[in-house]
């Protein structure tokens, strides 16, 4: 079952869609999210957000200064600055 991901910066939506896995860097270290993950609210650290879409295609974004929230199968990543790498 996929998770619904929304990655936004202060001024634009960077990426949204369904993913099977998302790995992001928080101030406490990297954390991976899959369907069924427990609820999380964490501070985003400067680094990459790696998204594996349900098709297997990978999306990489640089993000910093924000937070992420996982509730149910909804992952929201809100960054002060974010941009796609590929």
Automatic annotation (TrEMBL):
Compartment(s) of residence: Cell membrane
Membrane topology: Peripheral membrane protein
UniProt cross-references to Gene3D superfamilies, sorted A to Z: F0F1 ATP synthase delta/epsilon subunit, N-terminal
UniProt xrefs under CDD domains: F1-ATPase_delta (cd12152)
Protein origin, superkingdom: Bacteria
SUPFAM superfamilies found in the cross-reference section: Epsilon subunit of F1F0-ATP synthase N-terminal domain
Plastid found in the keyword field: no
ATP synthase F1 complex delta/epsilon subunit N-terminal domain boundaries: 4-82
Keywords: ATP synthesis, CF(1), Ion transport, Membrane, Transport
Pfam families: ATP-synt_DE_N
UniProt record similarity statement: Belongs to the ATPase epsilon chain family.
NCBIfam families the UniProt entry points to: PRK13442.1
Protein name: ATP synthase F1 complex delta/epsilon subunit N-terminal domain-containing protein
Organism, as annotated: Microbacterium aoyamense
């Amino acid at each position: 079952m996929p998770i619904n991901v929304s990655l936004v910066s202060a001024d634009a939506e960077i990426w949204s869609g369904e993913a099977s896995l998302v790995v992001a860097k928080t101030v406490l270290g990297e954390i991976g999210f899959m369907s069924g993950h427990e609820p999380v609210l964490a501070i985003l650290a400067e680094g990459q957000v790696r998204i594996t879409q349900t098709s297997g295609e990978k999306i990489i974004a640089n993000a910093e200064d924000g937070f992420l929230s996982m509730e149910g199968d909804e992952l929201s990543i809100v960054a002060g600055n974010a941009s796609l790498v590929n």
